[in-house]
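Hello forum,

I keep getting stuck at the same step: I have a sequence, I want structure tokens, and every attempt I make locally crashes halfway through. Rather than fight my setup again tonight, could one of you with a working pipeline run this one for me? It's a single chain of 183 residues.
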Amino acid sequence: MLVNKEKEIVIIGSWADSEYKLSFLRESIDRIRKMGDYDILIVSHIPVPSSIVKDVEYCIYDKNNPLLKESEYSQYGCISNRVWFQFGDYFINKTMPFRHDYAVWTSMRNAFNFAKSIGKSKAIYIEYDCLVRGDLFKDEMISPLYEFDACVIPGNFEDNNSFYFNTFSIDVDMFLKVLNKYN
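Reply #2:
Ran it on my machine without issues. Output:
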């Protein structure tokens, strides 16, 4: 399958607010670099150290970190419970006083709009703490974009029916079209 690096960009969503988390961000960048000469864009709501910024082509820092508070959930159709533990039919929910989902979507919008503005039409989105395997990167994340609009990497959970939605590749225009429908 033909791969065109002029059209492709790797977007890393980051919230690396500790040295431990920064080590994942550095490892993610190193792994991508070993897979090829891809343009990398980091997008974050917190400052990214200059030692990391110098290792990528682009970095977007948006100091606004829009969180939805529990009182706003019904206005935006959010569900405040998340399953924290499940064993058979027994599960424990935890109500969250805020959600950071909107902040993540804002970062994604910023990154994908930027990618489009510099002529990129294919994007691989990775959360900073998701370390992509080299054999999956080209074969399962990039090449399918020349046949399909999007690709989600199957999860590595016991049931093998889960998906990592924090690691995906998608046509830039398709992503923006879908995202703009909801905001």
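The longest strand covers residues 163-171. If your local run keeps crashing, start a new thread with the error log.
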